[in-house]
Amino acid sequence: MKISFHGADQNVTGSCHLVECAGKRILIDCGMYQGGRELREENAEPFGFEPSSIDFLLLTHAHLDHCGRIPLLAKRGFKGELITTAASVELARLVMLDSAGLQEEEALYQARKAKRRHGNNKRKIEPLYTTMDALNCLECIGRRARYDQPLQLAPGIHATFIDAGHILGSASILLELEEGEHRHRLLFSGDLGYSGRAILRDPATPPQVDTVVMETTYGDRLHKQLQPSIDELYDVVNETIGRGGNVIIPTFALERAQEVLYYLREGVENGRIEHFTNVFLDSPMAISATEIFERHPECFNAETLKLASDGSDPFAMAGLHFTRETFASMALNRIDGGAVIMAGSGMCTGGRVRHHLKHNLWGKHNSIVFVGYAANGTPARQIIDGAEHVRIYGEDIPVRANIHTIGGFSAHADQAELLAWHQQTGNPKTTFLVHGEDRSMHAFAKKLKNTQVEMPVLHQEYELG
Ligand code: ZN
Q1: Residue 121 sits in the same domain as residue 151
Q2: Does residue 266 share a domain with residue 152?
């Protein structure tokens, strides 16, 4: 029995872990590296194992950094069974197809750039994978996992998906392994959410195991409280609309967009926000994701489920408009005030939000509200850090709008919640820390007691014993 690590090692992206037992090879996640150029180039490197040798691919959830290299895995020969929850199947399809489109665009852009520089460039620039590759990999989708119901992968090998409360359909995965006399219980945390959030249930209590592989995204810090963040959102909306401005919310298409919609709807219902406030969800991907949410009430917490079963839509309010078409999105540029516009990308590196920033950043009466993580070097980070101008579509746009960063919305458990989760796994002999920056991982390692802590490097292999 062996485990080896092929992504998200001392890093927050590219999750990919391989388990070998009784002649079977089981991959947990196959995510994309995201971030700077060097990291992105990692994606095209060999996986560190032969894709055609993998029997099963278990997907914890549909974020790109967990599913983004699956089309490439299939393109390079993976023919095994992909198992995940029904909600993750739909979300991962959306995420992988979107990613394929972006890869194709990027390859075209690079080809044009090379041609400009070197004249008639003969070197063909291939995308990492194409839309066709993403469609082809869907053929590998097999059984749908239900929470807490063990699935047999092979005699003596079982996988159980456990609600991780991170995004719709997300799971931790328990592997029960048998090889001769040797038995081993191995738990992958996946990305963990935390208790008391909207829409999703709290993460389920994890089982007691021999080995844990766990994420450490926020292993070194504690979150702000959620309720003050929701109050702040309502205040910004009311104040901005009261003075005739627009509120622009750069938002991630998955989970955050639905969460913000949920709170805005609640705000309208509780009289915290004006009835018929115009809210535009201006992102085809976020609109599709919202429709997928509506199809999966089995993932909702009791409150959201009650709303859905009473026939009301947890993500809709009187003034809500979905703008899927480009012309409808462009029409938003003419709105002078009174609108809340949610658009991607969350870090303003691309997507429709850049148009909205161009038209609203310079206006003192407008507000830009950041509700998610903003990495260094992104326009979102520049604006948050107080830049006087930002460059958008080749123009320097002065930043005069009110800038708000609302820090309490997070899909990840913080240090205290990660620790509490780990404690419930019953003193595992070994704990592998993954999916965290160096500082976060080391801070979290110091907090762990009665377990051997390992922080694997890329392609490192361990015996499970
Ligand atoms: Zn995630």
Answers
A1: yes
A2: no
At 20-29, the pLDDT tens digits run: 999 999 999 9
Co-location of 59 and 153 in the same domain: yes
Q: List the CATH number of the domain containing 201.
A: 3.60.15.10
pTM recorded for the entire structure: 0.94
For residue 63, how far is its CA from the centre of ligand 1 (angstroms)? 5
**Residue 427: what residue type?**
N
Integer Cα distance of 406 and 364 in angstroms = 19
| 342, 238: one domain | yes
Determine the distance separating the centroid of ligand 1 and the alpha carbon of 264, expressed in angstroms: 23
Q: From the CA of 257, how far away is ligand 1's center (Å)? A: 14
Q: Check whether residue 97 and residue 167 sit in a common domain.
A: yes
What integer pLDDT is reported at residue 122 of this predicted model? 64
Do β-strands 2-5 and 17-21 pair in parallel, antiparallel, or remain unpaired?
Answer: antiparallel
Write down the H helix ranges in 243-346. 256-269, 284-295, 302-309, 326-331
Helix H or strand E encompassing 171? strand 171-179
- Domain with 182, as residue range(s), is 2-221+411-463
Query: In a 3-state reduction of DSSP, which class is residue 87?
Result: helix
Are the CB atoms for 406 and 229 separated by under 8 Å?
A: yes
Q: What is the mean pLDDT of the chain?
A: 95
